[in-house]
Amino acid sequence: MKIGCYLSKKCGAEKPLRTNIEKALSLEGVEAEVNFQRLSDLEANLKGLKGSPAIFINGREVQPEELTGFA
C-alpha cells in the first residue's frame, strides 16, 4: 500500500496526521509506504488538490469532495 500526504506549507496537521496514520496501520496490521510532501499553493493547484492535508491511498484521494481551499 502507498499513502501520499500533501500539505500546504502552513498546514499544522502533519504531526497528528503522522500519528493517526501510524496508529491506523498498526491497529490493522498493514504495512505501507507513507510519503509526506509540503507544497506551495501553485504546486497544489497544478496537482488539482482541494485542501490540506490531501491524502491519497494507492493513488485515490481519501476525501475527494469539494473543500474550502488549499491552506
Q: Could you give a short description of this structure?
A:
The chain is α+β, with helices and mostly antiparallel strands.
Task: Please give a structural write-up.
This protein has 71 residues and is α+β, with helices and mostly antiparallel strands. Helices cover 31% and strands 28% of the residues. It is built from 2 helices and 4 strands, in the order βαβαββ. It has helices at 14-28, 41-47; strands spanning 2-8, 33-39, 54-57, 60-61. The protein starts with a strand and ends in a 10-residue tail after the last strand. The model has no long low-confidence stretch (mean pLDDT 91).
List the topology elements:
Elements: E1 2-8, H1 14-28, E2 33-39, H2 41-47, E3 54-57, E4 60-61
Parallel strand pairs: 1-2
Antiparallel strand pairs: 1-3, 3-4
